[in-house]
Design brief:
319 residues, mainly alpha, Cytochrome p450, two-stranded antiparallel sheet
Length: 319
């Protein structure tokens, strides 16, 4: 995947993918994304309780990334299940068949489905992102099929997981901190700040790893060329030397953070889309259910990599 590449190959591939994530293309999807979220919330009509992870977040984010990639709605659940199993491979609920099944079953099915979509777009171009990737050129050069497949896997995995993770953890924090929730209900203009605070406190992925390209020293620690360096976003985003009272959820903080990476060439491709989705999810959920309560214990996914809830039962209105 290009997330783990160096230039010049990284820059060439990411430039092609960025054509599907221009600010204008993302902004053009706001009404469609809001319609998706409203449709998902409409399905809760008449219910007293739901699970925010499986009943709201998962179907909403799956349809958003699916609409970008050209995945038909009836396939959303299949793709979500495959991605949850692959990324949450160590969790017995997300992957009941065990880690070996990811390599033997899930990954081959993901690749096969993606290759069928690529073949179809070559014959019948559309305006979705898969078609953009299949037909895009830079200096007369197109992406090779394996580059499209791996990039498709990366985008669908991130699209299914990242926004879902931060939205659910952010909603849990708002229920736990009713005064902060009240601020958003009384002044919805604070929601973008609450999005950034949620990203700071609850980044979707705990870490990424890089390789040192030269000898250096960081905070008194010697790092040698070629050594592996793990960047823990869940730690850096709560750095007490950077944030006052870092474990407090403060919707007015509007912080800088590293939930999308630390900048540079590997900064998250889908940043604008994630922020837009999160803003709409918080706006529409709080508008409809301003007094949501817990209806049971939440459970975190058992993983050293994905930082997310796998269940969050809530009562939609006070008992």
């Amino acid at each position: 995947m290009f997330i783990g590449m160096d230039p010049p190959k990284h820059d060439r591939i990411k430039m092609l993918f960025q054509r599907g994530f221009t600010p204008r293309r993302i902004a053009d999807h706001e009404d469609a994304i809001r319609a998706i979220v409203i449709d998902v919330l409409d399905r809760l009509e008449g219910r007293e309780t739901c699970d925010l992870v499986t009943d709201v977040a998962q179907p909403a984010v799956s349809r958003v990334i699916g609409s970008f990639m050209g995945i038909p709605p009836e396939d959303d659940h299949v793709w979500a299940t495959l991605m949850n199993s692959a990324l949450g491979a160590g969790d017995p609920d997300l992957n009941p068949d065990g880690i070996k099944s990811v390599v033997s079953k899930d990954i081959p099915e993901i690749f096969a489905r993606c290759q069928r979509m690529i073949a179809d777009r070559r014959e019948r171009p559309t305006d979705d992102l898969t078609s953009v990737l299949v037909h895009a050129e830079i200096d007369g050069q197109k992406l090779e099929e394996h580059e499209i497949v791996m990039g498709f896997f990366l985008l669908v995995a991130a699209g299914n997981d990242s926004t879902k993770a931060t939205y659910c953890s952010g909603m849990r924090a708002l229920i736990e901190n009713p005064d902060e929730r009240r601020l958003l209900i009384e002044d919805p203009s604070l929601i973008p700040s609450a999005v950034e605070e949620s990203l700071r406190m609850f980044p979707a992925f705990a870490h990424f790893r890089r390789t040192a390209t030269r000898d250096t020293e960081l905070a008194g620690q010697t790092i040698r060329e070629g050594e592996k360096v793990v960047m823990w976003y869940v730690s850096s985003n709560r750095d007490a030397s950077r944030y006052e009272n870092p474990d407090r959820f403060d919707v007015r903080r509007n912080p800088e953070h590293q939930a999308f990476g630390a900048g540079g060439r590997h900064f998250c491709l889908g940043t604008a889309l994630a922020r837009l989705e999160l803003r709409i999810l918080f706006e529409e959920t709080l508008k409809r259910y301003p007094a949501m309560e817990f209806a049971g214990p939440a459970a975190m996914a058992e993983s050293a990599f994905i930082n997310q809830l796998k269940t969050l039962p809530v009562r939609l209105t006070p008992a």
